[in-house]
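User: quick one, fold this
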Amino acid sequence: MSDINYKQLNNEDWAHVLSEAMPYFKQWCGKTVVVKYGGNAMVNEELKLAVMQDIVLLNTIGIKVVLVHGGGPEINKMLDRVGIESKFINGLRYTDEQTMEIVQMVLTGKLNKDIVGLLLQAGGKAVGLSGVDSGLLLAKKICKDGADLGLVGEVVEVHPELVETLLEEDFIPVISTVALGTNGDMNRYNINADTAAAKIAVALKAEKFVQITNVPGVLKDINDPDSLITHMSVKDVPALMNDGTIAGGMIPKVECCMIANEGGVPRSHIIDGRIPHSLLIEMFRDSGIGTMIHSN
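Assistant:
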């Protein structure tokens, strides 16, 4: 679908596109969709604009969209600029106090407001938040395999009331994943955006959780894009992990889908942000795109 020249579509083609999409307009109207935004779609300006247009369109037709974003590449750039070495332990960023200042500045001060601005320019109503605002995300310090990661936390509580209020007023909440500590701990914690988005989806009782990333989805053969697994049940996941089909960087993506599914979200998706308007294709086309993980 990404290689279609829409200017060449005739009236019959357009009628087919709209008739295929119409049932989904009705199905999703009034429902909540949580989108985790990252990967190549976040650094390519053309793809970024397409994502913003998709989200504004969903919002315009009555779908309640919550956008949760990461920002690893931008954080790395800023750390390099100020002369702080990026350090990773077991795949997670070691975050000392200096690094945490940069993380908070980039995520909540720059990227979050850049995304809000793009949504506004695309005709949407958007509000930028962090996990600190109204105590949206509360976290506790974590250690990975006994290693001290500094100010890295995992979400233990989600308080979505502010987000729910914004959705009722037809705003698009844009959330950066910096969180406060619990039980009087006033530290701010760097939170993995994928897992935070999944837990936000659970707290909002979302109908869909979508990860926009830079891979096609789960592949039977990682070297063959045509081997895409288009859908699977949560019951299928353990076997696919055991046989190595789900491996490497795909494991945490699927685990986040499982968090959402097991928390009551019926459908989770891993879709390719390198394809323009992939979110619309997933929402409104019978065949969808990427990999869907469903609860039953």
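User: anything notable?
Assistant: The chain has a mean pLDDT of 89.
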